[in-house]
């Protein structure tokens, strides 16, 4: 039946409007079961007899359209009537609208298309097929324009006109059943305040930065208009601030019908906390008419955390909301400006934390599938997947492309699916093969166009790229990913001798070029790595360089202390603060606690001066910020060109809180938390910490608290899980199912 359905489109290009494709159908006999499948190039919504069908929004979701597009399946048995009207509305979405940056559109096609087929099984056992073809009629709709970045206009007074019959559309891609999670409306938040800003703007504050849209229930005069824009923050004077949205307009316009109206976008979404009503037909705002609808991939919550420090609790809240906001079918960098892209580096950095907070296995199975599909023949992996840049290609960058190795390994640790790892193994090897193939030196990755230690402050106040040598970062990740291939190969029983040899060579070459007397060598200029913004003098002696050498094990035992001391000194010299960006930050606390400096790790965690995690908390953040000092101490903003207040990357710190402070760590020999290392590292600054994870083997909980100088521990181990306990005193024990108490 799928093969009988045709891709169709409108005889008149809808442009930014969303047309409706209609088919009327009279069932011939009593219906036993009816199943409808649909997909689109664009985003579609399905109605039967006026009822919206299915829990999903923004279907069919975002995949590498050139390779595959998902279709969804709906049981519509109960919706069929004697005269059934099937309607599919299609907006431009990711495939046709603006994407990449707001000046690029039509990435995949210059018009929307759709396909649907319905199997009707009658009581007598016969079937009837309804499929998209030229008999479907096309109508205009009340959605007169819709863009993901720019927002949606819904005009309830717009005449609905017949455009004509659908025409066939030549769509070249593969239809696949939905592989990812549904994107759904998850929760609704009421405004916490109606603000009149100093400029006189009328602004609603939802109290939480989020991704989704505002739903408005309203009755007014026919033709009255609501015009609203979205923003994440107010400026230092308390006025609406949307400059950091760059070219994304995030503007929804609603024209009232005169009756009871319910408005919300169907084919667009926004990232926001504040909404400015620049046109509103009433004197006062009734907050009951407004709800912020939180939209993201439907992920099961698996992790929880609470401690005795309210600022750290707020940080955790911000991490969770950063993930909710950016796990919308694709792991995106941010949900608001003209970007919202599957940046591989951001995804890689955060995936370990992500897999604690939520069950992300299916979510990543889909996205990693696209990473593999888009991987070049030479093994390269781009900075953005699905790639949606015309002409301008994103970079092939170390720490971004390494998503191909890091994520499969983290998924294996969290969920233990060997089958999935096996499927992803060729992608891992190809990425390492790519790094091996790029010259000029066989065992190093020199030159290239990297993002470097993105947004590290040591690159200079206004720079996007940190100071750490990109050659050093790239070669260190070459070693690390090779190591991950070896680990994965061992799990899979593959022959990895070639990679063992490669690893030794890369390690030796790394040490030869980048280290001298046990420390990062004096600076050398990177081979050939243009910077994105300001010219940054690259350095090899940076916090991030030391962190990578230590975390990736690129040192000899005799050098360990020197490296650790150097890192500690640099942190102290910097006022007990990090100078790390996207690359170094996720590992810095792990490195400190692994090498005897857990107290310093806590000091960094508790640091409140920028760069620090609590700086943004002190500035009222409700999600993670992209930039350490997105809002500066004097209240002014960092450059609007790169200043999202909803970027999850630095939220990766939670895997230290969970894995080290609370001490729950999966182990590769018995993944998915079947066996764990249970090694909490309590510290008085938190008072207590209580975390749990609903693992594939049951709920594991680690809780510690102080009474005076004594630490009390409570652990809960589910049936079938073995925990290798190691308390700070050195006490060890093997725990199986049960609830345990210790004190020391
Ligand atoms: C994104 C980042 C991304 C970066 C590449 C930015 O525009 O928002 O999060 O990783 O580009 O360095």
Write the layout of secondary structure elements.
Blueprint: E1 8-9, E2 19-25, E3 31-41, E4 43-48, E5 51-52, E6 69-75, E7 84-91, H1 93-96, E8 113-122, E9 127-131, E10 137-139, E11 143-147, E12 151-155, E13 162-165, E14 167-168, E15 175-177, E16 183-189, E17 193-196, E18 202-219, E19 225-231, E20 233-234, E21 240-241, E22 251-255, E23 260-263, E24 270-279, E25 290-297, E26 303-307, H2 310-326, E27 327-328, E28 330-331, H3 344-357, H4 361-374, H5 403-415, H6 418-437, H7 470-492, H8 497-514, E29 515-516, E30 519-520, H9 543-551, H10 560-573, H11 585-594, H12 598-606, H13 613-618, H14 654-661, E31 664-666, E32 675-678, E33 688-695, E34 698-707, E35 710-717, E36 722-726, E37 732-735, E38 738-743
Parallel strand pairs: 6-15, 12-22, 32-36
Antiparallel strand pairs: 1-14, 2-7, 2-10, 3-6, 3-8, 4-5, 4-7, 8-9, 10-13, 11-12, 16-25, 17-18, 18-23, 18-24, 18-25, 19-22, 19-24, 20-21, 26-33, 27-28, 29-30, 31-32, 33-34, 34-35, 35-38, 36-37
Helix pairs in contact: 3-5, 4-5, 5-6, 6-7, 7-8, 9-10, 9-11, 11-12
The structure holds beta-D-glucopyranose.
Description:
- This protein is α+β, with helices and mostly antiparallel strands and 744 residues long.
- The protein folds into 4 domains: 179 residues, Jelly Rolls, CATH 2.60.120; 114 residues, Jelly Rolls, CATH 2.60.120; 345 residues, Glycosyltransferase (Alpha/alpha barrel); 80 residues, Sandwich (Maltose phosphorylase, domain 3), CATH 2.60.420.
- 24% of the residues lie in helices and 28% in strands.
- Strands 11, 12, 16, 17, 18, 19, 22, 23, 24 and 25 form a 10-stranded mixed sheet that branches. A 6-stranded antiparallel sheet has the order 5-4-7-2-10-13.
- It is globular and about 80 Å long.
- The chain starts with 7 loop residues before the first strand and ends with a strand.
- The structure holds beta-D-glucopyranose (BGC).
- The site of beta-D-glucopyranose has 10 residues, from helix 3.
């Amino acid at each position: 039946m799928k093969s009988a359905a045709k891709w169709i489109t409108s005889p008149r290009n809808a442009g930014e409007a969303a047309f409706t494709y209609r088919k009327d159908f009279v069932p011939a006999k009593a219906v036993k079961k009816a199943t409808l499948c649909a997909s689109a190039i664009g985003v579609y919504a399905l109605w039967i007899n006026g009822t919206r069908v299915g829990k999903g929004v923004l279907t069919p979701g975002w995949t590498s359209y050139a390779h595959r597009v998902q279709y969804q399946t709906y049981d519509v048995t109960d919706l069929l009537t004697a005269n059934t009207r099937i309607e599919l509305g299609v907006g431009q979405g990711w495939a046709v609208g603006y994407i990449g940056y707001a000046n690029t559109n039509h990435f995949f096609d210059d018009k929307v298309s759709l396909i649907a087929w319905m199997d009707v099984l009658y009581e007598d056992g016969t079937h009837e097929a309804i499929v998209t073809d030229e008999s479907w009629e096309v109508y205009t709709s009340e959605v007169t324009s819709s863009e993901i970045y720019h927002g949606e206009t819904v005009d309830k007074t717009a005449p609905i006109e017949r455009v004509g019959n659908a025409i066939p559309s030549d769509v070249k891609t593969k239809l696949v059943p939905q592989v990812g999670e549904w994107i759904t409306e998850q929760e609704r938040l009421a405004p916490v305040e109606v603000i009149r800003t100093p400029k006189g703007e009328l602004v609603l504050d939802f109290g939480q930065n989020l991704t989704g849209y505002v739903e408005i229930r309203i009755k007014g005069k026919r033709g009255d208009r609501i015009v609203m824009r979205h923003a994440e923050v107010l400026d230092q004077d308390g006025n609406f601030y949307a400059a950091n949205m760059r070219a994304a307009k995030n503007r929804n316009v609603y024209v009232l019908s005169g009756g009871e109206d319910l408005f919300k976008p169907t084919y667009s979404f926004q990232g926001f906390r504040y909404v400015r009503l620049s046109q509103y037909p009433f004197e006062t705002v009734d907050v009951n008419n407004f709800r912020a609808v939180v939209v993201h991939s439907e992920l099961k919550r698996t992790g929880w955390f609470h401690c005795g420090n309210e600022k750290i609790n707020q940080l955790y809240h911000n991490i969770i909301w950063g993930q909710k906001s950016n796990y919308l079918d694709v792991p995106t960098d941010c949900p608001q400006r003209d970007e919202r892209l599957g940046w591989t580096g951001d995804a890689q950095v955060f995936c370990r934390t992500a897999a604690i907070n939520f069950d992300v296995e299916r979510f990543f199975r889909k996205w990693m599938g696209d990473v593999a599909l888009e991987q070049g023949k030479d093994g390269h992996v781009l900075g953005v997947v699905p790639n949606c840049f015309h002409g301008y290609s994103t970079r092939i960058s170390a720490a971004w492309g390494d998503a191909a190795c890091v994520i499969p390994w983290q998924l294996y640790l969290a969920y233990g699916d060997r089958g999935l790892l096996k499927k992803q193994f060729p992608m891992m090897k190809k990425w390492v093969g790519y790094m091996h193939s790029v010259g000029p030196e066989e065992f190093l990755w020199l030159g290239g166009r990297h993002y470097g230690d993105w947004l590290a402050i040591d690159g200079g106040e206004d720079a996007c790229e940190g100071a750490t040598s990109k050659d050093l970062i790239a070669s260190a990740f070459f070693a690390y990913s090779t190591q991950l291939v070896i680990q994965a190969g061992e799990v899979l029983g593959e022959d990895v001798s070639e990679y063992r040899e490669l690893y030794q060579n890369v390690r030796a070459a790394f040490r030869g070029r980048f280290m001298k007397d046990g420390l990062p060598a004096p600076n050398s200029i990177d081979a050939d790595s243009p910077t994105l913004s300001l010219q940054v003098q690259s350095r090899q002696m940076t916090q991030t360089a030391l962190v990578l050498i230590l975390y990736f094990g690129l040192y000899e035992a005799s050098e360990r202390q020197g490296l650790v001391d150097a890192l500690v000194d640099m942190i102290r010299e910097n006022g007990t603060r990090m100078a790390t960006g996207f690359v170094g930050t996720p590992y810095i606390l792990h490195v400190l606690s692994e090498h005897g400096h857990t107290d310093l790790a806590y000091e960094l965690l508790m640091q409140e001066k920028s760069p620090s995690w609590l700086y943004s908390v002190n500035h009222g953040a409700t999600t993670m910020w992209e930039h350490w000092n997105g809002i500066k101490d004097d209240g002014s903003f960092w450059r609007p060109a790169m200043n999202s207040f909803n970027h999850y990357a630095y939220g990766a710190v939670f895997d230290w809180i969970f894995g080290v402070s609370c001490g729950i760590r999966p182990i590769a020999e018995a993944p998915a938390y079947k066996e764990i290392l249970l090694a909490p590292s309590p510290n008085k600054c938190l008072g207590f910490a209580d975390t749990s994870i609903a693992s594939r083997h049951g709920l594991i909980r680690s809780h510690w608290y102080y009474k005076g100088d004594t630490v009390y521990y409570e652990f809960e181990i589910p049936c079938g899980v073995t925990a290798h306990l190691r308390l700070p005193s050195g006490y060890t024990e093997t725990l199986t199912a049960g609830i345990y108490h210790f004190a020391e």
